[in-house]
Amino acid sequence: MKMAKAVILPVLVTAAIASGAGPAAAQLPAPPPLPALPTIPPPPPVAAMFAEQTWPGNETKQDAFNNMANEVNTGWATNGLQSTLIGANIGFGIGCLSIFPNFIAGCIIGTAVGVVAGAATGIGSNPNVVPSIEKFVATP
Q1: Angle, alpha carbons 62-67-73 (nearest 5°)
Q2: Does the keyword Signal apply (predicted)?
């Protein structure tokens, strides 16, 4: 009798699993189609919006500003971040070593100066940046 009890339960469980008895899953209906959204034109670049607000009616100044902003962005994307990080590390090291009595302030000031110098060097690696800035400044 004990053996029959020990065998019957595992056989019933195995038969239930083998027969595919599982949770029922209902097929959901397809969702209704979404209404068509109105098409919105993409916004103009930020530099163009700034130029239009700052120099309304002065197309040559706006074009010079847009050209300068594009060249600065190209310089930053090409080599700006790397030069900024290198400048920050060099400025941090020199600032911490050069102002010994108040070395914490020296570290902060050195890092800030290094960041600015590194960013200017990285952006200036694009040879078109300086002429575009000069053209922007010279445009009436």
Answers
A1: 125
A2: yes
125 within 8 A of 79, measured Cβ to Cβ: yes
pLDDT per residue over 14-64, tens digit each? 777 766 655 666 778 888 998 888 888 887 788 888 888 888 989 999 999
Cβ–Cβ under 8 Å, residues 129 and 75: yes
59 within 8 A of 126, measured Cβ to Cβ: no
Q: How many CB atoms lie within 10 A of CB 88?
A: 20
Which domain does 96 fall in, by range? 79-140
38 φ, ψ (degrees, to nearest 5): -70, 145
Q: At what angle do helices 59-75 and 46-54 cross, to 10 degrees?
A: 150
Residue at 113 is within a domain: yes
* Residue 74 banded pLDDT, cuts 50, 70, 90: very high
| Mean pLDDT across the chain | 85
